[in-house]
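A quick aside before the break. I want you to see a complete sequence-to-structure record at least once, exactly as it would be stored in a machine-readable document. Don't worry about memorizing anything.
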Amino acid sequence: MREPSENEKVFKRPTAVRRGCRGCLWLALGLVAVASLPIFWRTAVKGYYQRHIYAVQSAPAQRAAVVFGAAVYGNGRLSPVLRDRVETAVQLYKTGRVDKLLMSGDNQALNYDEPSAMVAYAVAQGVPPEDVQPDYGGRRTYDTCYRARDIFQVESVVLVTQAFHLPRALFTCRQLGVTAVGVAADLRAYRGARWYEIRETAATLVALWDVLRHNPPPVLGEPLPLH
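That is the input. The structure line, written in tokens, reads:
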């Protein structure tokens, strides 16, 4: 009796096995799609909001600039990232592009105060104290944008932060109804720049979830319109 060829053996493989292989393939494709979603979304947001990012000299005039907080070291010393943000905002003020500076950062710990350190640095650079407003509830980008709208009642602003952060900040503020443009505060090369980009990839997807939920931030308070 003739032995079945190798091709015949493959052809007679059980149907359940073949279906299982197809299922594994679809599962693998699904996992790849899920893993690619943050990268796709980040790329789309960056591409769309690039047109709203300006240099200091070409930024549209606005009532206020919102400066996003970042790390502050001991004795109120600003990290390089934060110092560049504040210095860029000071340039906007001194060139007449904005009338007010809204310094938004984290102040949830007794011994940690980003907004006060930012205000002190701007005043030391020659900005009158009455034109610098601290926002002590800006723990996250979403919180800063939400509070700019609801607490400080700004309708259009210049957002000041680094280029890696600006697309997410612009997306968040604009989705919350604040007409925003951005000015990049990249005055130097930063250590950990690759890590910042990786973190932004995940954070930009979280920003989509934030604006869809539209929950108020943990800290609100009474309205304090910028005059």
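Two observations worth writing down. The two ends are 98 Å apart (CA to CA). The longest strand covers residues 62-68. We'll return to this after the break.
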